[in-house]
Amino acid sequence: MRVDNGEVGARTPLVEEQRQLARDRIKRAAVEVLRDKGLGATVEEVAIVAGVSIRTVFRHFGTRDHMIASALRAQLIHYGDTLPRPRVDGPLEDWLPALLQAVHGLNAELGRAYWELAALGPTLEGELAEAAAQRRIGRTKLVAWAASTAWRLAGQKGRPPKWLFDTFAIHLSAFATRSLVADFDQDPSEVAEASSRALLAAVEAARR
Hints:
The chain is mainly alpha-helical and 208 residues long. It has one domain (7-207): Tetracycline Repressor, domain 2, CATH 1.10.357.10. The protein contains nine helices and no strands. The chain has helices at residues 7-37, 43-50, 54-61, 64-82, 92-119, 126-153, 162-171, 174-184, 188-207.
């Protein structure tokens, strides 16, 4: 009779933990490469940054697109989880600059891939198209939430005017981040400061 001493069962969680650690390491490397190389990042480039073999990458993700889409989805979730929530009836002047600092910092962290995900969305296929759709849905929700929250913190009721939603959409976009960082040599904190000043002025104008 075979006696089960629990060793096999004890090893299984460890194997799964090591597998997840390897996947997370590859995804972090993919995010780093995607930031600089965009959606054209290769498996070889990711493997070098992760310190693993190309075969290891394929063993965990199967295809290049699955690896890239997995990394992008993880970053999009991180994006939403990182944004600061306002205190109940807290001052707009405190929360909005903090939100803009977080948004433009995250846009810069995601880098070229995030900008390309927005710009090339309609032309992408498969899992990359799904990631682009997830980004678009998340961004639409972000703009609606940010504009409505700012309107409420400014002491207003009901929905803010449509032009204010549009103004928030512009100043929360990855295009705004990339334009000022790439073309005007600003860092994300400077972009955030300019955007927060513009949005505070826009909210004040909408109240009149």
